[in-house]
Every structure is written in C-alpha cells, then in structure tokens.
C-alpha cells in the first residue's frame, strides 16, 4: 500500500468518524421530546423552507451577476425584501445607520485629529468611536445632562457636523468591482448570509428572559432623567453590571420596538464573522478563511446571541479585535506600535461590556503580553511616523472603562460586581447597603476526584454531542453545535499528517497563537468543571479560537487531502448547524416573525406589552404608571413579565432572588427601610400571584395595615398602592386592609406559583 493511499484512508476514516458523530448527536437530540415537538410544528417547517429558498436566492444571484458590485447589490436587495417581510427592516436600517455614525466618528478622530493611517481598518474606527462616545455619554451624565433626549440630540448634531466637515477622512472607498469570488467562496458566503438572515427573521419574537429583565429596559433602569450615575434604587445585581453596551445604545432604547437595540447585535454578529475571517487570513488562504467565517456563522453559541439585547456579541467582537491587532503588531514589527495600542484599547473596552470579560479577555491579553515580553517585542517609539495617535485610542478606552466602572462603584461600593464581589470585599472594598456579597460558585465542591472527573466528562459529552440535562439548560440555547467534536477530529488527523515548517514572521504568529490558545483551553476546562450554572455563551471566544487553531493546523498539513477532507466533513457540520440553530434560541421562539408586507417597517413591542397588560386586567394601572415614566415601582408578580410596566420597575424576585438580598423581606421594617432607600413610589401586586402561604402576601398585608402602603386602585383584582414610608396605623389603614382582603384576588392555597 502506497503512502498516498494510506493518507487517503486516514482522511476517509476522519470523515467516517465525523459522520458517525453527527448521526449519534442527531439521535440524541431527536430522542428529546421538545425537539420532536418543534420539528412537527408548521412554523418550524415554514422556517426551514424559507431558509432553503433564501440560500438558493443568494447562490443564484452570486453566480448570475459577473461583477462584485452587482452581486453585493443583489444580496442587499434580497436581504431588504426578507427584512421587510418579517417586519424588521426599519430597526435594522436605523441601527445600521447608528453603527455607521460610530464608525464615522471613530474615523474622524483617528484620521483627522490623531493623524493615524486610514488603512488600519474599520475595527480601529469602531474602537475609537465607541470608546469616546461612551466617554462623552458618561461626562454628560456626570454634569446632569445625560438623559436619553440629550444624548440623541448630541448624536444628531455631531452627525450633522461630521457630514459637513468630516467627509475628507473617509477616502474614495474603491469601485467595488476589484474582488473576484471563487465558486466555493460564493457558496460559503451565501450560507453565511443565510444564517444571519435566519436570526433576523425571528428578531421580533426572540426577546429572551434576560433581555426583558434588563437588556431592553435601559431607558428606565439606566436613565431617570439625569443620566447613568443616578441611584435608581434597584438591587438586582444585573442592574449594576458593567453597562458599556447599554450606555452605547442608549439613544436607541427609547424607540417603540425592542428590535432597534437587538438589531445592533445582529450587525455586530456580522462584525464577529468578518473579524474571524481577518484573523484567519494570518494563517490561511482567502478561501480557507471564508470557510472559517462560514463555520462560525453556523455556531448557535455565537449566532443565537445576535437576537438578544445582551452584551455577549459586542464583547466577542472586541475580543477578536484585540487578538487581531496583536497579530498585526507581531507581523508589522515593533515600529508600528499603534497596533499594540489598538489591541490594548480593545482589552480595556471589553472590560466595560461584561463582568466575565475580566476572566476571558485577561486570559488572552495577558498571555499575549507575556509572549511579547518574552520575545522582547517592545514598541520602538519614534521609529516610524503615524503611531502617536494610538495612545489617544488607549486613553479613550481607559476613560470609558473608568466611566463605566465609576457607575458600579457609586452604586455598590465596588467597581465590579457579579461573582467578583466576594474577592473585592476581601481585599478592602466595602459593599454598600442593600447589596449582598456573591461568591464564585463551585459545582465540584465536596466531590471526590473521581466524581469530579465523571462530572467533567458528562459535561464534555454534552458539549460535544447533546447538551441536555439538569445543568445543560443554558448550554442548549447557545451550544457550539457539532463544531467542537469536528474540530477535535480534524486536529488529530492534521497532527497525524504533520505540517510544513513555519519560518520568520509566520513562525512568530504560530507560536503566539499556541501561547494564547493552550492556557485559554485550560481556563475554559476549569470553568466547565467548576461553574454551577454553565451558560453556552461563556465559551463564544473559545469556539472562535478553537476554530482558528484547528483550521490553521489543517491548512498547514503536508497533504492537501487533509483540508479537502475537512471541507467535506465541514459541509455536514454546516447542514447540522442550520437544523439545530433553527430549533433553538434564548426564548425558544418558534419559526420566524409571521410574514407581512403591510406595516410601518417595525414591530411595536411597547404597544404589544400594553395590550398584554390590559388583557391581564391592568389597564388602569398601566395608564397611571405611563403618565410618569420616572416613577419607581416594586412589582410583586411573575418575573420578568411585570417588568413591562412603562416606568422604573424592579420585581420582588429582584429583591429576594439569588442576585438580590432576601434579608430585606424578613421583617416589615427592613422592607420599609429598603423602599425608603429606593425612593419607591408604588408597589404593584399581581392578581393570583401571592396568597396567605407566601411571605410577599403577609408583607403587603402588614404594610397596608400599618399605613405604609395606600391602595390607589384595584384593577380586576390587581393592586397598585402608593408608598408612604412614614405612614402609621390608623382608622383609614384599617379600612384599607379590609378593602384589600375583599378586592385583591389572592392565590389559592393549593395553587403552584
């Protein structure tokens, strides 16, 4: 048997195990009742048919038109029709214009003011624009003019000034006809666009639990008329997270559709795929990097975050930008140290977006920085012109970080909350009333080494094949799909065939990737074994780095048959990803937003929320609260549904849940003290939510009796009461208690809440 024949058998074996893994995974998934039910629904079948038609349309237009500009225009037209049909055209357009404004603002700062080169890329424009917009919004809040109205006025005025005086920094943009695509690239790009449109089609109906909790409520929980630094009295720890993304998108948060905010993430997901391609180009040919981007577009763990209002997508994008510019610095050399400045700025910006970025961004940036120190790749200041402006970008990112962390510091006494509060209090920080210290969860605590090993193995099995089970509920919604097992097999076969020897800069780039990836892999394995609640979106950067690391190995294999085998098995992975992505989302939405061509171009979520509240008998309550959007309300009812009232609402679950402080409801006096701290004006109690067996019922009853709550109205059994922390027991409060017992519809003793 010849060498080439042996190699051919090796690749066939790889493809066999890939196919076997997919079949096993499909079998595991299809045995779950929830997936069987979804697949039998008309909405799912219609969604899959539309997705297939969309892919065919993109492919047809790509092969039909000879020029790249024509292909682009055809793709834009197809996408526009699809967006209009699914009632999301206007939000995508408006959010796209806002992101274009951020890029324009950043380009003006970089090129016109700081004299940095134009060709450093859109990523550097985004860093500069986003960081300095956050700084400006923070400064406006600090002086008391940070309301959404003022921020919006600033955007329009500064945008007009840029259009009048800043166009010279944009350049000619090229003619759009210079890029020719191969047939494989057209197919892969068609798949990529289809997967983005798949998410866009359900943008209106995929608003998830966390987004309803805090993501789409920035207009109420971040701004009460003066800006982000006002203490709004909310105790839920999610309200104190690093809010860089929410601050950046504040001007969009007052619009009637939640999709104006979530579609920002849709655009940024395109940025994630583009930056994945850009990173891949350091190690692969163009067609191979396009395959990398297409592979990432099929990862539910990445793309399902594109229709949430959470900060995961922008965090991943900024982390990719950080890695990209560190690679640019290594490739360009020490003289072009502005790239190191961009990478450093991206690191700081990532810390404004999400608390857990402190772990994952630091793991990557820290190892990268150690590599640069070890290789003595330190900047040569003054050796090349056009670099000094990089310091301004870094300064902007530091100021943005200071502005965002200052809010958390003012509210809680800590610059960072979530699981870091226990660590920070140990080193001298003091947590303010009424917040409670949260510890880092450890699901392996109390287990033997054997039990921990089995526990980790079970979780790895879930990540590789089918994330179902008690601790996989949040993984199935943002799973890596079949990607990880496919990449593991491809890495094994690539190592078996060996690689071509890297030399010079290519060697440095390869070593740098290994130095970053291997420790990052260890960090993710520790997280997987340790965390009590595993969320699939924690591993988004891991999916990207693993794909880059393994596809690089396949691209560099001595035998081209390895890459061809990877492409062959990769097609199965892409098909699997369509099937699974269409079934899952963070709120388990079914299908697309129903097709309609007669509408205003957007879905009015606020009006839908009002109608839902009216249908539940809350019409009068809604009207009272809508008259004063700055009113502060504590809502006792189903979370997060009760947060839909048009004012500053926090729920009873916010207060008593794991991220609140349950001690506040142990005594009436404790709760009254908290209401005084929060400057609460109203308490709402949902009909049928609480009863005599619940602490919330006895708490409300006692506060009415002692004059701390004064009923405003009973609306179909729902109660809205005004808060009077100085109230006392009197004849009027006694009558109010009798009225409460007669008018409030309480939960029956045998009902499950």
TrEMBL record:
Note the superkingdom of the native organism. Bacteria
**Membrane-spanning segments:** 6-26, 47-66, 72-101, 122-142, 148-165, 186-207, 258-277, 289-307, 313-330, 359-378, 385-406, 477-497, 509-531, 537-555, 567-588
UniProt entry tagged with the keyword Mitochondrion: no
Name the UniProt key words of this record, in alphabetical order. Membrane, Transmembrane, Transmembrane helix
Protein name (database record) = Sodium:solute symporter
* Annotated source species: Lacrimispora celerecrescens
